[in-house]
Amino acid sequence: MRFTSICSPLKDHDLAKITNYISNPYVEPVGSNRETGHHGLDFSYYHKDGVGDPIDGTLIQSMLDGRVAGLGFDRLPYGNMMVIETPFEILPAELATIYQMKAGQSLYLLYGHMLESPNLAIGDEVSCGTAIGQVGGSGFSGNPHLHLETRVGPTGIELPTMIFYETTATLEEQAAYVEWRTGSTWTKYTPMLLLTYVSETTGANQ
After folding, report:
1. Helix (H/G/I), strand (E/B), else coil: 179
2. In sequence order, which residues have a C-beta less than 8 Å from that of residue 32 and are 6 or more positions away?
3. Confidence of residue 160 (pLDDT cuts 50, 70, 90)
4. What is the pLDDT of residue 142?
5. Which has the closest alpha carbon to 124: 202, 46, 39, 67?
6. Residue 31 pLDDT > 80, yes or no?
7. Which among 60, 106, 108 is positioned nearest to 83, based on CA atoms?
8. What does the alpha-carbon distance between residue 162 and residue 116 come to, in Å, rounded to a whole number?
9. Among 164, 205, 20, which residue's Cα sits nearest to residue 81?
10. Domains, the chain
11. What integer pLDDT is reported at residue 203 of this predicted model?
12. What is the mean pLDDT of residues 52-72?
């Protein structure tokens, strides 16, 4: 695995302009309740740039080279989702520094509320630009959108299904969700760090 570039999370959407489609920003948790706030960015619109089709069904692309580390299948809150891990060793030094990463850590990106169940498996390798799903409204979603979260954590973690707001969720599924959202395993960052890095460097792809 090697680093190639950073790609737009939405096919046919210029990465340099992707912030134009942010419909819900990252919001830090309030006070001691780390489950509050909004842990990622939402990308959505009714008509792209005022014309054309709604965002529903737009292909979601992996932003980075990496491997599939987690999957979710139409369960609350993330719905159909995928987590992709990119290890410290292949990231540009400047980007790793922004995330205060060190050897033995990885950058994890979660793509949520996809239209259909993921068609990749844990451990599958992906490249920048690999289609990993379509924009949908599964899980807790008032409208079709891509929900993107970024975390730094230990390299090589395989995430079990993270389910919380369902009475049928097992204790293990609930614990996985709580750890991802509020636990010490993960350090939460706004995805804007990645987008800002892109705007300040070259090599971004569509």
Report:
1. helix
2. none
3. confident
4. 87
5. 67
6. no
7. 108
8. 17
9. 164
10. 6-199 (2.70.70.10)
11. 57
12. 96
